[in-house]
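Exercise 7.
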Amino acid sequence: MTAKRASSSLLARQWQHGGWLSTALRPLSALTAWAVARKRALYAEGAKAVYRAPVPVVVIGNVYVGGTGKTPMVIATVEGLRARGFTPGVVSRGYGVKVGPHARVGLGALEAARFGDEPALIARVTGAPVSIHPRRALAAQALLRAHPKVDVIVSDDGLQHLALARDIEIVVQDQRGIGNGRLLPAGPLREPASRLNEVDAVVTNIGTPAGAPDSRGAEGRPRQVRMWLEPGDAKRIEGHATRPLSAFAGQPRIAAAAGIGNPERFFTTLRTAGITLASSLALPDHHDYGVSPFQDLAADAILVTSKDAIKCGALNDARLWEVPVRAAFSDPQLFDWLARALRETPRA
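Solution. The predicted structure, written as C-alpha cells, is:
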C-alpha cells in the first residue's frame, strides 16, 4: 500500500469511528461549523441573493462528503416525475469542467469532457435536458430559456448551494450514515448532522438488497427510505453487445474498475451477483481516462460502472463492459409523494 493510500485509509477509519487524528482536527472543525452557520445566516437575512425559479426545484444532495449514490437517485427521480406527468430538467455543477461565464445546456448524447461524467450519464439515461454551471442559479435560468416546457428542476447535488431556492430537499446517504458525526476535517460532514432533521426525505443507499428491505416508507418529515442498486445486463463498450451479468460468474479472469466515490460498493454488487473478481481497481472519483489504466491488467473482461463507461469509449479496449444499475426503493409511493408535494407548491 502506498503512503497516499495508507493516509487515506487512516482518515477514512477516523472519519467513521473517531480516534486520535479526528480529535486533533476538532479545532478546525469548529471553524467549519462557524463558516457553515455564517453562510446560512447571510442567506437567511437576505445579505446574499437567492434565485427563486418560476418552477419547483428538487435538490438531491448529501451531508457526507464524497459519493453516496446521488446519481442513481437523480436518474430515478427524473424518470419517476416524468411518469407522473412532469417535464423535468436537470442542473448540475459539471464537476471538473471549465464552463466559463455562461451555463452550458445540452440534450441527449453529451460529451463528458464538456459536461462532466455525471451530467452526461444523466442526460444519456433519462433523455432530460441538462444545464451545468458552478452557480446553479445560472444553470437553472439557462435551462428554462432553452427548454421552456420544463416544469420542475432536479438539482444534482447542491444541498449546500443556498443561492438556488428549493422546494424539496432529499439527502442521499449510505451505510456509513454520519460517520463519527463531526464536521470536516475531523469528520466527513459538510454540515452538522442536525441538518438531516430539516430536509424532506433521507434516502439511505444500502448498496444491495441484502437484509430483505421492507416495502414501507416511514411517513413524517424527513421521510425515511431505503435504496439499493439493481444491476442490469452488461453492455460491451466497443460494439454494444449485451450479456447477462450471470454470464461472467465462474469465469477466472474477470476484473472490475470503478472511478466513483465509493468503488467498493460496485465491487460488492458484482460479487453479490456471483462474480469472482480476479482483481479490482479502485480509481479516483471522476477519473478522466485520458490514459488507459487497464493496459497492464491481466483480464479477459473488465467490468466498469456507467459513470466510467461514458468516458471509456476512446480507449478501444474490447475487454470493457459497462454494468448499468437502477435504483430500487423500500417505499413504493416515494415518487407519488414527491409529485404530490411538488403540485402543492405555490409555483407549480
